[in-house]
Amino acid sequence: MRIYRSLAEVPADFGPSALTIGNFDGVHRGHRRILRRLVALAKERGWKPSVLTFDPHPTRVVAPERTPTLLTSPLRRAESMREEGVEQVLILPFVPEVARLTPEEFVREIVVGRLGARAALVGANFRFGHRHAGDFHTLKELGRKYGYQTEIVDPVTCRGRTVSSSAIRELLGAGRVSLAARFLERPYTIDGAVTGGRGVGSKHTVPTLNLATDAEVIPASGVYATRTSDLDDGRQWNSITNIGYRPTFGESGERTIETFLLDPLEGESPRRIRVAFLHRLREERKFDNAEALKARILADVRVVRNYFRRRGDL
């Protein structure tokens, strides 16, 4: 896959392309439906399956007070798009000059002029151009003028709800990581560096990997069955992760993410990890003392081992 971070980087042979446009935060089931149709059409016509997305999120420029927390970084989105067969991604800096483009200017100068679109595929709620003046119908009308075909891809529903990035944020905020994984077609993950904790686990309960992350969306406080990966060498472990404030030790303030590996740690301790959230066991709670907390952690470990055994991962 080729990733471009500005219009200046876009080569003259970017097109002819089958293009989809949007934020694609999370690259969830609805987004993947669009991407799969995009790739199929491109293969059928001999075009290049391509994506135009934005950084920062457009609302950060036009309505900062409504800017959502993001599930994925632009590069993580591109990683997921590559899994679906997308060959080119332009991560366009969303600056005021872009925000001021009318729908026709956006199509003429970028969609057709720079990206060589022969087809434009978008979701039902697609909006573009200054003050969101354009929608799918605008895009289709401009397609007749500028020579590209247009398709709208219907939204996806799951468990009676429309799959959307905002719905996934809501599920994660409630700790419903299993349902969020259905919406995403994969577990929700958080990346970051392993940092030194305060030594509480190693002294009083069980040793853990403490995760420092830039992720904007963190699941609700609680205890989770997780899968942990070493981002440097690919090692993986079944694990149990606690998100919370260590109430048993009277701590408050910054939330911590602590992961206990259920599998033996052979070799060096990982420096950077990815934690995939599979199932929520319980809420975080305060125990009378460290011994009671350790006993509950060991009971949680048994539950999680049984969870992985049922999944066939043990």
Can you offer a commentary on this structure?
The protein is an alpha/beta fold and 314 residues long. The protein is 32% helix and 27% strand. It has a 6-stranded parallel β-sheet, with helices on both faces. Strands 9-10-13-12-11-14 form a 6-stranded antiparallel β-barrel. It has a two-stranded antiparallel ribbon with strand order 7-8. The protein is elongated, with a radius of gyration of 22 Å. The model is unreliable at 198-205 (pLDDT under 50).
List the helices and strands and how they pair.
Blueprint (H helix, E strand, L loop, with lengths): L1 E3 L12 E5 L7 H17 L2 E8 L3 H4 L11 H10 L4 E6 L2 H4 L3 H10 L4 E7 L12 H11 L2 E5 L3 E2 L2 E2 L2 H9 L3 H8 L3 E8 L4 H5 L4 E4 L9 E9 L5 E9 L11 E6 L10 E11 L7 H22 L3
Parallel strand pairs: 1-4, 2-3, 2-5, 3-4, 5-6
Antiparallel strand pairs: 7-8, 9-10, 9-14, 10-13, 11-12, 11-14, 12-13
Helix pairs in contact: 5-6, 7-8
Kindly list the characteristics that best describe this protein.
314 residues; alpha/beta; Rossmann fold; Elongation Factor Tu (Ef-tu), domain 3; 2 domains; six-stranded antiparallel barrel; 32% helix; 27% strand
